[in-house]
Amino acid sequence: MPRKIPADRFDQLVARATDVFIEQGYRRTQMADVADAMGVAKGTLYLYVQSKEALFDLACRYADAEPPLEPPPVLPVPTPAPGATVAYVADRLAQNSVPAALMAALDRGRVADVRRELEEIVCELYDVLARNRRGIKLVDRSARDHPELAELWFSGARGGLVVLLTRYLEDRIRRKLVAPVPDLSAAARLIIETTVFWAVHRHWDAHPQNIDDHTARTTVLRFIVDALAAAPVTTAKARRSITIARRHAGGRKRGRRT
Questions:
Q1: Is the torsion defined by CA of 102, 106, 112, 115 positive or negative?
Q2: Backbone angles phi, psi at 34, to 5 degrees
Q3: Number of CB atoms found within 10 A of residue 57's CB
Q4: Residues 6+ apart with CB under 8 A from 234
Q5: What is the pLDDT of residues 220-253, one digit of tens each?
Q6: How many CB atoms within 10 Å of residue 22?
Q7: Burial 185-200 (b: 16+ CB within 10 A, else e)
Q8: What does pTM read for this prediction?
Q9: Judging by beta carbons within 10 Å of its beta carbon (0-12, 13-18, 19+), is residue 150 exposed, middle or buried?
C-alpha cells in the first residue's frame, strides 16, 4: 500500500522553505536544508518542485497566503523561466507598494484635517507591510544574492515610495500644514524605515521586545503623526535652525558630487 502523503505537506513545504530562505539567503540555501527543516528526506521535496529555483518561486508566491494552501494543479512545480520570479515580485510590488491614501493625498487640493490624512497614510502603509511581512522579508533577504531583485526592491519599490512621500511632505510643509524638517528625503526615508522595522523586521529580531502588534502599530502611528502634525515652527530662532540644517545638508550633497 502506498504511503499516504499528509494533507498539510504542501503548507509545510512553503512555510519551511520561506523560513530557511529568510534565515540563510538564497545562495546558501540548499534543498537538503529545507528537507531537514521539514523532517523529511530530500527526495520528498522533488515530488513538489523540480529545483531550488522552483522552490524559491513557490515561496515568493505563497509566503503570506493563509493556510490551507491550494497546491498548483501540476506537481512537481517546474523550474520557472528566466525572469519569471522577478516579474511576479514586480507585479506584487506594483499592487502593494504605494498606499492608496498617499496617492489620494497627492491629488488633493484642499486639506481639511492633515492629522487624519497622515494617520490614514501611515496606517495603510503599516497594514500592507504587516500583511505581507514574510514575503517582504524573503525578498529583502534574497536581494543580496539576486541583483535583479535588489534593483527592483531597493531602487524601485523603496526608492519610488521615498519620492512620493518627499513630494507629499514638501507640499504640506509649503502649505504650513506640517512642521518643517531639515531634509525632506531623509524624513520620507525615516517614515518608511520606522514603519518597516515595526511591521516586518522586528519579527526576526535576534533580541525581540515583548510588544504586541497593536502596541507596535499604535506607537508607530503616534510617533510619526505627532512629530509631523505638531504646530508648525514659527519663531525666528527655530526658522534659522531649520535653514542652517538645510544648508549643511545641501553642502554635504555637493561635496559628494565633487
A1: positive
A2: -70, -40
A3: 22
A4: none
A5: 999 999 999 975 444 455 556 656 766 776 666 5
A6: 19
A7: bebbbebeebbbebbb
A8: 0.85
A9: middle
